[in-house]
């Protein structure tokens, strides 16, 4: 394949050098409602082969998503662009931290080709943080979106971007490429940012989401939260209010699962009934779409959710 690259993944010991000195946090046993089967379907193997063939990374693998078996069985994957090494060191994240390599100029075309082979109607594109780049990687996002629009004009495109902190014009560049959904996750409540997202700022992330709507009020916006890091119910409800003030359309809420003993300690497992309660509150606050369950992730069932999101807006406009 022209322009394909070999994936060189850091070893387990090298993935998180910034966490090596931390004391171990025991990983609690998962409750019944959150256990998933190990991936072993032929479709999973074929999707994995396709990713390797095109030299592509997926957040499904790099972040150790629990839904990978289900999603890849249906040939749904979330592409992670700009490499597999992140310049940030979030305490919850399993993506490797370090000094990233150069951008692959063939990546937009490779992703477009893989999307065609998978026959995707909806594609999610995310990335590592690239604080080392002048535009934070916004231009590369735009190239990927443009390549997808050109090669698969009927495929809807959802981006899950970094916060582009101090990258002037980055949000404008991505919006100008016209993704169908612009997603950026707040991840947790403001009080926990110093320990959970030390490289990020809550109001920077919130401002990014508001800015998307200022540029294009019709573009769908989306954000996600994890629970189980020590947040309170009242703090989550306040974040919901902040997101609605930024006119965010779609909220996802899922359970934090501790990747290794060196990652942030799991505070507790929220029950399915508690997720249902959070979803009810979010709907009452005016979100067009809400997905809240223990296994919910930003791109989980994203294609089906986008269809419902578009229908919800159409129904809203009729009232």
TrEMBL record:
<protein>
    <recommendedName>
        <fullName>Lipoyl synthase</fullName>
        <ecNumber>2.8.1.8</ecNumber>
    </recommendedName>
</protein>
<comment type="similarity">
    <text>Belongs to the radical SAM superfamily. Lipoyl synthase family.</text>
</comment>
<dbReference type="GO" id="GO:0016992">
    <property type="term" value="F:lipoate synthase activity"/>
</dbReference>
<dbReference type="InterPro" id="IPR003698">
    <property type="entry name" value="Lipoyl_synth"/>
</dbReference>
<keyword id="KW-0408">Iron</keyword>
<keyword id="KW-0411">Iron-sulfur</keyword>
<feature type="compositionally biased region" description="Basic and acidic residues">
    <location>
        <begin position="12"/>
        <end position="31"/>
    </location>
</feature>
<dbReference type="InterPro" id="IPR058240">
    <property type="entry name" value="rSAM_sf"/>
</dbReference>
<dbReference type="GO" id="GO:0005737">
    <property type="term" value="C:cytoplasm"/>
</dbReference>
<feature type="binding site">
    <location>
        <position position="60"/>
    </location>
    <ligand>
        <name>[4Fe-4S] cluster 1</name>
    </ligand>
</feature>
<feature type="domain" description="Radical SAM core">
    <location>
        <begin position="72"/>
        <end position="288"/>
    </location>
</feature>
<feature type="binding site">
    <location>
        <position position="299"/>
    </location>
    <ligand>
        <name>[4Fe-4S] cluster 1</name>
    </ligand>
</feature>
<dbReference type="InterPro" id="IPR013785">
    <property type="entry name" value="Aldolase_TIM"/>
</dbReference>
<dbReference type="Pfam" id="PF04055">
    <property type="entry name" value="Radical_SAM"/>
</dbReference>
<feature type="binding site">
    <location>
        <position position="86"/>
    </location>
    <ligand>
        <name>[4Fe-4S] cluster 2</name>
    </ligand>
</feature>
<feature type="binding site">
    <location>
        <position position="90"/>
    </location>
    <ligand>
        <name>[4Fe-4S] cluster 2</name>
    </ligand>
</feature>
<dbReference type="GO" id="GO:0051539">
    <property type="term" value="F:4 iron, 4 sulfur cluster binding"/>
</dbReference>
<feature type="region of interest" description="Disordered">
    <location>
        <begin position="1"/>
        <end position="31"/>
    </location>
</feature>
<comment type="pathway">
    <text>Protein modification; protein lipoylation via endogenous pathway; protein N(6)-(lipoyl)lysine from octanoyl-[acyl-carrier-protein]: step 2/2.</text>
</comment>
<dbReference type="GO" id="GO:0009249">
    <property type="term" value="P:protein lipoylation"/>
</dbReference>
<keyword id="KW-0808">Transferase</keyword>
<dbReference type="InterPro" id="IPR007197">
    <property type="entry name" value="rSAM"/>
</dbReference>
<dbReference type="InterPro" id="IPR006638">
    <property type="entry name" value="Elp3/MiaA/NifB-like_rSAM"/>
</dbReference>
<keyword id="KW-0963">Cytoplasm</keyword>
<feature type="binding site">
    <location>
        <position position="65"/>
    </location>
    <ligand>
        <name>[4Fe-4S] cluster 1</name>
    </ligand>
</feature>
<feature type="binding site">
    <location>
        <position position="93"/>
    </location>
    <ligand>
        <name>[4Fe-4S] cluster 2</name>
    </ligand>
</feature>
<keyword id="KW-0949">S-adenosyl-L-methionine</keyword>
<keyword id="KW-0479">Metal-binding</keyword>
<feature type="binding site">
    <location>
        <position position="71"/>
    </location>
    <ligand>
        <name>[4Fe-4S] cluster 1</name>
    </ligand>
</feature>
<keyword id="KW-0004">4Fe-4S</keyword>
<dbReference type="GO" id="GO:0046872">
    <property type="term" value="F:metal ion binding"/>
</dbReference>
């Amino acid at each position: 394949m022209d322009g394909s690259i070999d994936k060189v993944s850091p070893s387990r010991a090298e993935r998180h050098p910034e966490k090596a000195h931390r004391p171990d946090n025991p990983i609690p046993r998962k409750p019944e409602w959150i256990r998933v089967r190990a991936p072993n379907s032929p479709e999973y193997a074929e999707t994995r082969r396709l990713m390797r063939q095109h030299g592509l990374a997926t957040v499904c693998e790099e972040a150790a998503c629990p839904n990978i078996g289900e999603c890849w069985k249906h040939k749904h994957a979330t592409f992670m662009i700009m490499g597999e090494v992140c310049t940030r060191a979030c305490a919850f994240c399993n993506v490797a931290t370090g000094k990233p390599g150069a951008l692959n100029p063939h990546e937009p075309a490779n992703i477009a080709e893989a999307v065609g082979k998978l026959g995707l109607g909806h594609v999610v594109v995310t990335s590592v943080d690239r604080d080392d780049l002048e535009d934070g990687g916004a231009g590369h996002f735009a190239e990927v979106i443009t390549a997808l629009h050109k090669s698969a004009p009927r495929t809807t495109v959802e981006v899950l971007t970094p916060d582009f902190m101090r990258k002037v014009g980055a949000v404008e560049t991505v919006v100008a490429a016209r993704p169908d959904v612009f997603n950026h996750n707040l991840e947790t409540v403001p009080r926990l940012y110093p320990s959970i997202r030390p490289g990020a700022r809550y109001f920077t992330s919130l401002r990014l989401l508001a800015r998307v709507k200022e540029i294009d009020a019709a573009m769908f916006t989306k954000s996600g939260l994890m629970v189980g890091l020590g947040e309170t119910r009242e703090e989550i409800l306040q974040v919901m209010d902040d997101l609605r003030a930024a006119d965010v359309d779609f909220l996802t809420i899922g359970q934090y699962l501790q990747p290794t003993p060196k990652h942030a300690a799991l505070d507790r497992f929220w029950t399915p009934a508690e997720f249902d309660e959070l979803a009810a509150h979010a709907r009452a606050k005016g979100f067009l779409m809400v997905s809240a369950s223990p296994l919910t992730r930003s791109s989980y069932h994203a294609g089906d959710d986008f269809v419902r999101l578009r229908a919800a807006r159409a129904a809203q406009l009729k009232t």
